[in-house]
Amino acid sequence: MAGKKRLNCLKKRDLLNSNRADKSELIKLGQTYLQQGLISDCIDFFEKAEHFEELIQLKEKCADDGDYFLYRRLAKILQDPPSPEEWTHLGDKALDLGKLLFARLAFQQADNHEKAAQVEKLLQLHSQERNPVGNMLQ
Known about the structure:
The protein is mostly helical.
C-alpha cells in the first residue's frame, strides 16, 4: 500500500470485520498507516492482527507524544492499566508539548490534583487570552 491510496472507509470496515483477514496483510496495512502518521488507523489493524509487540511500542510512543486518548485506548487493548507514575509521565510530556487538555486528563488519572490544578489555571489563562472581550463582559 506504500505509495497507494488509503483504503476507503467501507473496505477498511469490511477488512477489520472479516473473520478471514490475513494477519500479515493486516500488519502491513498497520505499518503503512503508521508510516503515514495515522496512528488510530494503525492501531485498528494491529489490534485485529493481535500484533501486540507493535501495540506496546505504540503505547510508549503515545506516552512520549502526550496523546492521552490513544494511550488510554492502547492500555485498554493491552489490558495494561497505567500506573500513576505512567499517567504523570504522559501528563508532563503533554504539558511540555502544550497539550493542556491531555495533560489535565493525565494528571487527573494519576490523582495528581496539584498538577491538574496548575494545568487548569493555564487553561483558564489561555481561554482569557483567546477571548479578551468576552471576559470583560462577565
